[in-house]
Amino acid sequence: MELRTAPYGSWPSPIDAALAAGLDGRPEYLAAVGPEVWWTEPRPAEGGRRTLVRRPADGGPAACVLPAPWNVRSRVTEYGGLPWAGAERPGGGPLVVFVHFADQRLHAYEPDAPGSPGPRALTPVSAVGGGLRWADPVLRGEEVWCVLEEFTGPAPTDVRRVLAAVPLDGSAAGDRSRVRELTDGRHRFSTGPRLSPDGRQAAWLVWDHPRMPWDGTELRLAEVTRDGRLAEPRTVLGGADEAVAQVEWAADGTLLAVSDRGGWWNPYRVDPRTGSAVNLCPREEEFGGPLWKPGLRWIAALPAGASRAGGSGHSGGAGGAGGSGGGALAVLHGQGSCVLGVLDPESGDLVDAAGPWTAWQPTLAVSGTRVYGVAASPRSGYEVVELDTATGHARAVGVRGSPRTDPVDPAYYPEPQSRTFAGPGGREIHAHVYPPHHPVLRARADELPPYVVWAHGGPTDHVPPVLDLHIAYFTSRGIGVVEVNYGGSTGYGRAYRERLREQWGVVDVEDCAAVARALAAEGTADPDRLAIRGGSAGGWTAAASLAATGLYACAAIIYPVLDLLGFAEETHDLESRYLDGLAGPPQTLALRNRERSPVARADRITAPFVLLQGLDDPVCPPAQARRLLAAMRGRSVPHAYVAFEGEGHGFRRQETMIRALEAELSLYAQVFGIERTDVPLLALEP
């Protein structure tokens, strides 16, 4: 192809907003149902619902299990969690239980049963507050055991959580009293139970305010009595300063856990009697992550003999760390991004799966010698991947229920560069740089490209360098993107993520600014055309950056936190005490609010911005956005507010994402002096 010249930001691209929005989201919550693997998939074009998909044992194409309007998604703690469980039954086909988003009731479904009438409700509806919600289920005999979240009043914090057993015969569908509570509700938060192979023990994780699950959790263990009760529950691992991210059982009944007691989330074998824990692979790598939702899975036990991963990995990590006695483990591990490996607990040897995938999500399923996960790379989006541990062969088995195909010519995809920058005091800052990229267009040699700093949400989270069509939407048009894993991000050990302790609105703002200034100083980015954008906690960082620095020409602020005092009073229960760690104890919050909140510092905002907000957001309610707009009233700062009916925290509908992407591009075009006629003009006021 002959190269042509055109200004940065003006390049035409086949990656339009409809394409990026239509392919948004990724498969989640894998599990084996007999010899099949099942998972949930997003459907942006169908109102943002999530469906359940199954892949036949014969390797045929994956098929949708539940048609519209069924929406397999939990609202426990508002972020949800594992919303389904399934089991193969002799002669009757699979039985599946799932949470339907619209009413949050558990339903049972037998998709292969002749003349099946469809899903039937198992749990009642409650008129109190947010009602009854369920997550992280496991089938046990004639019951399903799971987390029950029950609202006791109208406030977001009027809530209790217990482990509960729901009968599969439907007798609790109209009778709350038929739900058996297995725990006493003494702990504020809980994951679902993990039953030992012989069914005689159950293990789960708990934590309490003001801790978040990456601050400190406890691994609880109880005997399961013959009549299905949890007897004498006790804590065997964890505490206020130790975060246990997952508990798992090996096939021989060995108790396994992922703990950060050594500063990194590593896999441990736990003695259930004494609580002594042996690190199976002591490394400065993460074998776990932030437990934002119950049901996340970074390790999975393999059957005896399934120990070969094959290919490109490395080995020799622990050397006699002490075996689990139950065979190898499939593990996700790494710094920043996770890859899939097979760990021999006896020797500590760890061999990674071969293949192009560089980032794996915390969901694993095991069926015989096969391990299934969800992975992506800089050249491919998230897809379901199968590793045959007997042969070491790994392959993609489909995304969106069909084999992977590139929606556009991959020549338009960006090439990320993972880099480490120096921040204040010389501290390291990890980031992924996505330069503008187009197969046939270049800018003049004397022109520097505009760049947008992307601040991720959480803030206790991270972003890996993988193909994201929302990023490609901008880079293929000549606008660079840099994603910053600022201090406080996960993936780099406990010390790195605790840099943000009581420093939210300081460290994140400084780190993003340091990366932007470095790109400008080295001649990678135009210093006069820098922008910042982010959603949720990233929206806070974007707005706080406008108020604290004069660095950015504009910002896209998406379903943000904007007011610390308001957030503490208005948000959902999970994060209602999050600010204790991020900003300081309640007695200091008013001062920190005046020092850092964009609402309190609105007089310092002079750069244009667009504010995008879902009107049904229970995490960052639209009241936050309205307060910032009120504070900006009468000031000559161009800005726009775009609100979306029916959207919550995180946009899921295709039409919403199209409007949001086009509004963001229009803002950059106007501020950076770029001519574009392919997106609607965003009206900026005043």
Describe this structure in words.
There is one protein chain. This protein is α+β, with helices and mostly antiparallel strands and 686 residues long. It contains ten helices and 39 strands. An eight-stranded mixed β-sheet has the order 31-32-35-34-36-37-38-39, with helices on both faces. The protein starts with a strand and ends in a 14-residue tail after the last helix.
Q: Which tags fit this structure?
A:
14% helix; alpha+beta; eight-stranded mixed beta sheet; single chain; 686 residues
Layout: helices, strands, pairs:
Layout (H helix, E strand, L loop, with lengths): L3 E2 L11 H6 L5 E6 L2 E8 L5 E7 L7 E2 L19 E6 L3 E7 L6 E4 L10 E2 L10 E9 L2 E9 L7 E9 L12 E2 L7 E2 L3 E2 L5 E7 L10 E7 L5 E9 L5 E6 L5 E5 L6 E5 L6 E3 L19 E3 L27 E5 L5 E5 L6 E3 L6 E9 L2 E8 L2 E9 L4 E6 L18 E6 L5 E7 L6 E2 L8 E5 L13 H7 L4 E6 L8 H4 L9 H15 L8 E7 H12 L5 E7 L3 H7 L7 H5 L6 H8 L12 E6 L7 H11 L6 E6 L9 H19 L14
**Gross geometry:** globular
The radius of gyration over CA amounts to 25 Å
Query: Residue ranges: pLDDT <50 for 5 or more in a row?
Result: 312-325
End-to-end Cα distance: 45 Å
Mean pLDDT: 94
Strand order in space, largest sheet: 31-32-35-34-36-37-38-39
Number of strands: 39
Please report the number of helical segments.
10
Largest sheet: 8 strands, mixed
Helix residue percentage: 10-25%
Strand content: 25-35%
Structural class, from helix and strand content? alpha+beta
Summarize the structure.
The chain has 686 residues and is an alpha+beta fold. The chain is built from 10 helices and 39 strands.
